[in-house]
Amino acid sequence: MGGGRVAHPVLKGPSVVKELVIGTVLGLAAGGLWKMHHWNEQRKTRAFYDLLEKGEISVVVDEE
Fold first, then answer.
1. What's 56's DSSP letter?
2. Predicted local distance difference test score (pLDDT) of residue 1
3. 8 A C-beta contact, residue 57 and residue 51
4. Are 35 and 42 in contact (CB under 8 A)?
5. pLDDT, tens digit, for every residue of 5-58?
6. In 34-62, which positions are buried (b, 16+ CB within 10 angstroms) versus exposed (e)?
7. CA pair distance 64, 59, nearest whole angstrom
8. What is the DSSP letter of 2?
């Protein structure tokens, strides 16, 4: 009954360098997306105040 041995892979712990690289890449990607979102909101706000200053729009409702 002495069957053959099955070769099992050796389980290793997480690679610290790999974890650091993955964390850094994900952090930079998320930061870049957040910055792009922030710049877009800033552009919208600046355009709104430019139109408000030119008198093209108003925040007061016209009474007719």
1. S
2. 54
3. yes
4. no
5. 877 777 788 899 999 999 999 999 999 999 999 999 999 999 999 999 998 988
6. eeeeeeeeeeeeeeeeeeeeeeeeeeeee
7. 15
8. -
Cβ distance 58 to 52 under 8 Å? yes
> What confidence score (pLDDT) does residue 62 get?
76
Q: Half-sphere exposure (CA, 13 Å, Cβ side) for 13? A: 2
Please report which helix (H) or strand (E) contains residue 5, including its range: none
Residue 60 is given by DSSP the state: S
Distances (CA, A) of 41 to 6, 45, 52, 63: 60, 6, 17, 30
**Measured CA distances, 6 to 1, 3, 10, 11, 45 (Å):** 15, 9, 12, 15, 66
